[in-house]
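note to self — DONT lose this again. spent like an hour looking for the file last time. sequence + predicted structure for the chain T wanted, 110 res
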Amino acid sequence: MTFAVLGWAGILLRRRAAAHKRLLVIATVSVLGPALARLARLPFFGGEQGPLTVSVLLALLAAVVIHDVVTMRKLHPATTAGISFAIAVSVIFNAIAAAPVGLSLVRWLQ
């Protein structure tokens, strides 16, 4: 969902190059979670519950923030909106997944 919303917003703002680029980079970072989770299964990355996935995703989002601060001396509105949206969706989806409703849905899907 995060990729779709941010990608769609980036495409809509394609005539505003700065916003377009930032939204598409943040959208791309949002789809890296499953790949990083598979890498995290390797023992030297801390196992499945290790900090690799969250650490890498936050580091990539921090790189976008650092780029804005270094080049513009402030955050671009697209960066603020995109990162806020991505983090909010992640927190909400994780809360739903940990709730009894989310767990029963997963059991039903199995």
